[in-house]
Write a structure and sequence with these properties.
Blueprint lengths: L1 H25 L3 E8 L10 E3 L8 E5 L4 E6 L11 E2 L10 E3 L8 E5 L4 E5 L5 E8 L3 E4 L13 H8 L6 E2 L43 E2 L5 E4 L1 E2 L5 E3 L9 E9 L22 E9 L4 E11 L14 E3 L3 E5 L4 E5 L7 E5 L8 E3 L8 E5 L4 E6 L4 E6 L9 E3 L8 E5 L4 E6 L11 E2 L9 E3 L10 E5 L4 E6 L5 E5 L9 E3 L9 E5 L4 E7 L29 E2 L4 E5 L1 H5 L2 E2 L3 E10 L10 E7 L3 E8 L3 E8 L5 E11 L4 E10 L3 H24 L21
Parallel strand pairs: 27-38, 40-46
Antiparallel strand pairs: 1-37, 2-3, 3-4, 4-5, 6-7, 7-8, 8-9, 10-11, 10-13, 12-13, 14-16, 15-16, 16-17, 17-18, 19-20, 20-21, 21-22, 23-24, 24-25, 25-26, 27-28, 28-29, 29-30, 31-32, 32-33, 33-34, 35-36, 36-37, 39-41, 41-44, 42-43, 42-45, 45-46
Length: 701
């Protein structure tokens, strides 16, 4: 009896010691370093971490649901000059994007409002007047859903019934209603004032007038209002080598009628429910024109499976765009045809459909999860690679990463019921030890990053919870720590190296009450010996990464400017040296044999292109712009498998030539003065320092 009791005590002590050790090893030395008020409404999209004002320090850009857009310094959380701004009467589901829209070499902020308007704001918070893009309404026959039995033998009529997208179209801009009271030159009154008329605030040089809404003048057609409910992205959609197309997943429907809204004119409240559509709309940001549209689905709002697009579309490098709908279809949209290709048919797809080489065969696969917990992985031809079933659906979609550090990719996502799942990328089987149960439900996107680069070979999986906590799970052993922030988080967190005095990466997230928070490792946190400028290879600075989309490569592959290049920000002359590093530590099956490098200054001044056979550090001499300017220098790496990576910094070119001329003029004077001081000394200086006059001797008498 005594022996048995002692044995139990020893076992309990051992387990307690083990648990304590494991908890200590899992502990994250994270603390809040700043927080900022970014609105009085929820933050429903992830912040963006990027340098906006050109000081080569990352800023934080974030939108709130009620239309406030904020930009704060990533080091302090203080508002940048000119920010925040408010889009009066607008709602924002989409995160901000950065693009050199006016071709001045610097980034502007691109904002997509819920009512289908794209607005551009300069880095100082001022709007680009008249530079507004409007998604046109969807046009559908008024009685498209009514069966006319007298036309039942008409082949064209039957086709329109079975394929209603065939008879739907986007309205042309010539159909916009021109208001005679609209002034020819509309001026912005204030970027924060709400005193000006909402209807005429966001006018456009490229398609003047007001979008029609509701019944057409002849009563035969209906103009259905556009809505942007997710974040667009910028890509090379047409394959011409320039990343200048804005791809927008758009919904078309009528909101509930209000006395102040002109939406759905000529239709009753019941009739408004008969019209719903979704499409992929593409604008060329160089020509400012709508260049492509593909109508995905047309249905009624009251349908059992209405055809909404609930999440963002994703780019498939070299192939097009992939997007899922609430009716359960996953489409591949190509620039060569307006007819979308159906890749997957499943239950309703609420989360983002992504493209990634999850099985590391050198080709992209399409991954989607539906409302029944079915996970599908297919190739671009629609062939099933693997499928799996999990406990519930995911509102945010899937991310791809090497979670456990074994060199193989996995699919990672969190489900509504509070589980984090990790599936093997080549088979779809649940990885050993997963799923991990969370203490509450999840609505946000899973963030895969590495808070302390070099700590070990596994990733960190970070999930904001609706109960006001953040769950951080170590991929190697599934050790989880919960950090309370006291406020629910609806959008995914992002990570970057914001604070130079802190080790590792920082976390930034927005809460449901409009608070922006930054969490950082404490100064005494033990770190590895990795160079600090390599931290960005482990970061996840936006909702979707500019090139690699939804895949986290754990710093194993990528490109970066070295510290030497990033410190050379004041450039004079016709050319300058650029030093960069190509990394590729992937398995040999997917390791690249060719690395294509392109360096661009501003939006489209490509100053360097070259292919390399091996990773490493390279120094190249590239041309400077012909005119003095300050611009963004971007380096882009594309591998033979279509993997894409970017890095950028700000530099000034020949802006300091006046200082150089001043020094050239000053040097002769300084040199002369120094020579005089050396030859004559301070004490022997005479009123006439320069021997330019000669005193005549008096003539002897």
């Amino acid at each position: 009896m005594l022996v048995a009791s002692c044995t139990k005590i020893l076992i309990a002590l051992f387990l307690a010691m083990f648990s304590s050790s494991a908890a200590h090893d899992c502990h994250r030395n994270l603390e809040p370093v700043w927080q900022s008020d970014v609105g009085s409404s929820p933050v429903v999209s992830s912040p963006v971490l990027a340098d906006l004002n050109g000081d080569n320090v990352r800023d934080v850009l974030v939108t709130s649901f009620n239309g406030q857009v904020s930009t704060v310094d990533g080091r302090s959380g203080h508002d940048l000059p000119g920010w925040p701004i408010t889009l009066s009467g607008k709602m924002l589901f989409a995160a901000p994007l950065l693009y050199d829209y006016d071709n001045d070499g610097l980034h502007e902020v691109l904002l997509a409002t819920a009512d289908g308007i794209v607005i551009f704001v300069k880095s100082d918070g001022t709007f680009l007047e008249g530079e507004t893009l409007m998604v046109p309404p969807l046009v559908k026959k008024r009685d498209w859903f009514v069966i006319d039995y007298q036309q039942i033998k008409n082949t064209e009529y039957i086709t329109s019934l079975s394929q209603p997208t065939k008879s739907a179209r986007l309205a042309s801009y010539s159909e916009f209603i021109v208001d005679p009271d609209l002034p020819k030159e509309k001026q912005w009154i204030s970027n924060t004032s709400s005193s000006y008329g909402v209807d005429y605030t966001f006018w456009s040089k490229y398609h003047p007038g007001v979008r029609p809404s509701g019944l057409s003048t002849d009563g035969s057609a209906v103009y259905i209002d556009p809505h942007i409910l997710s974040t667009p992205f910028i890509t090379d959609f047409d394959g011409d080598g320039s990343e200048e197309e804005l791809v927008i997943a758009t919904n078309f429907y009528f909101e509930d009628r209000s006395p102040s809204s002109p939406s759905g004119q000529g239709l009753s409240s019941e009739e408004l429910q008969n019209y719903l559509g979704s499409a992929v709309v593409v604008f060329n940001l160089h020509t400012k024109q709508l260049v492509f549209s593909s109508i995905l689905e047309v249905s009624r709002q009251s349908s059992q499976y209405p055809g909404y697009v609930l999440s963002a579309a994703s780019s498939v490098p070299g192939a097009g765009v992939v997007v899922g709908t609430s009716s359960g279809n996953v489409y591949l949209v190509k620039s060569s045809t307006t007819e979308p290709q159906t890749l997957i048919a499943m239950d309703s797809v609420p989360g983002q459909v992504i493209a990634s080489d999850v099985n590391q065969d050198g080709s992209f696969e399409i991954l989607a999860i539906d409302n029944s917990g079915n996970v599908a992985c297919k190739d671009l031809n629609g062939k099933m690679v693997w499928e799996a079933t999990v406990s519930s659906s995911s509102a945010a979609g899937i991310r791809v990463a090497d979670v456990d550090g074994d060199g193989f990719m996995e699919a990672v996502f969190a489900t509504f019921d509070g589980y984090v799942w990790v599936l093997e990328g080549d088979t779809g089987k649940v990885l050993k030890g997963w799923p991990v149960k969370l203490p509450s439900e999840v609505r946000a996107t899973v963030l895969v990053t590495k808070l302390i680069p070099g700590e070990n070979g596994a990733s960190d999986v970070i999930i904001p919870l609706v109960d006001g906590q953040i769950a951080i799970i170590r991929g190697s052993d599934r050790c989880m720590e919960l950090i309370s922030i006291g406020k629910p988080v609806l959008a995914g967190a992002v990570s970057s190296d914001l604070l130079t005095g802190r080790p590792g990466l920082e976390l930034v997230l927005g809460t449901d009450d409009g608070t922006l928070m930054c969490l950082a490792n404490t100064p005494y946190t033990v770190t590895s010996s990795l160079p600090l400028d390599m931290n960005e290879l482990f970061s996840w600075p936006a909702e979707s990464l500019p090139c690699s989309g939804a895949t986290f490569y754990f710093g194993k592959v990528g490109v970066r400017f070295t510290t030497k290049s990033q410190q050379n920000t004041k450039i004079s002359g016709r050319s300058f040296a650029v030093e960069f590093e190509i990394n590729d530590d992937q398995p040999k099956e997917v390791k690249g044999k060719e690395y294509n490098i392109k360096i661009v200054i501003g939006r489209q001044l490509a100053v360097f292109r070259k292919s390399y056979r091996y990773p490493g550090v390279y120094t190249e001499l590239v041309s400077a712009p012909s005119q003095p300017c300050r611009a963004v220098v971007t380096i882009r790496l594309t591998t033979q498998h279509g993997q894409c990576f970017e890095n950028f910094y700000h530099a000034s070119f020949n802006l300091h030539f006046k200082d150089d001329i001043a020094w050239l003029l000053l040097v002769p004077f300084v040199t002369t003065g120094l020579l005089l001081l050396i030859l004559h000394g301070w004490t022997q200086l005479s009123p006439d320092l320069l021997p330019l006059t000669v005193t005549k001797r008096k003539r002897e008498r």
